[in-house]
Amino acid sequence: PTVVFQDNGAQLAFLDGTAFAGVTFATASSLTLSGSIIDQAFDTNDTVVIQTADGNLFKIGNALSSGFSTPVSFDFEQLLPETTTPEETTMEVVPSPTPAPPFPVITMAGWGLSPVTFSASGGGTITLAADITGGERPYVVELRQTVTDPLLGAAEVVLIELTDSDEDGRYEVVFSDLPPDILPPGEFTLPGLRILVTDALGQEASWPALNVQP
């Protein structure tokens, strides 16, 4: 039988010995198409690719015929570009780390004198003050001193805790009504004495060896 593919402006390519199922859009796009009639037997194992005048691609194949006078049947299918499914990507959102608050800082620590004319012979009141900033409230502010035991060796003990009674960031402890001659006149250092600040996160800061100016 004779098979004629006719379309005004159509072009075709004959794939001799190429099975219908093996022809894809990628195969067809690489073929050389012709507008001329191809005089070649169209067998079951052959495939014809046709490009219509409007640019669509079709494949025709699996031709069957039981005799000369029997109509030829075949399969056809439009060839379309393969659509690729984009790979699924998982994006992990990592929250920015919360910056830790700065370590607490003792901005000022010292002895405030009351009265100002404190003398060795007159006695008086001494205020120990520390201004605390940074860190995470609440603070624990302690006055500590290192003492030496003949048996246990050196150890630090808490003498007293400073409080912020005015809630202004200044922690104080008052030593009042000191007897005369408890401190010698002049400036000196109390060794082993320090203020230790511990904030709510366990961060620490300290101010060592306080100077006394009676």
Description:
- Helix content is 2%, strand content 44%.
- It has 214 residues and is mainly beta.
Order of helices and strands: EHEEEEEEEEEEEE
Question: What helical percentage do the residues reach?
Answer: under 10%
Instruction: Report low-confidence residues grouped into runs of 5 or more.
Output: 113-120
- Please state the CA-atom Rg, rounded to the nearest Å: 49 Å
- Could you say which structural class the secondary elements and strand pairing correspond to? mainly beta
Number of helices: 1
Distance between the termini: 127 Å
The portion of residues forming beta strands comes to 35-45%
Name the overall outline: rod-shaped
Number of strands: 13
Strand order of the largest sheet: 1-2-3-4
Give the biggest sheet. 4 strands, antiparallel
- Residue-averaged pLDDT: 76
What topology emerges from the helices and strands here?
Elements: E1 11-15, H1 25-29, E2 47-51, E3 57-64, E4 73-79, E5 105-119, E6 123-133, E7 140-149, E8 153-162, E9 170-178, E10 188-189, E11 193-198, E12 204-208, E13 211-212
Antiparallel strand pairs: 1-2, 2-3, 3-4, 5-6, 6-9, 7-8, 7-11, 10-13, 11-12
Task: Tag the structure with descriptive keywords.
single chain; 1 helix; mainly beta; 214 residues; four-stranded antiparallel sheet; rod-shaped; 44% strand
Summary, kept brief:
With 214 residues, the chain is mostly beta strands. The protein has one helix and 13 strands. The chain is rod-shaped, with a radius of gyration of 49 Å.
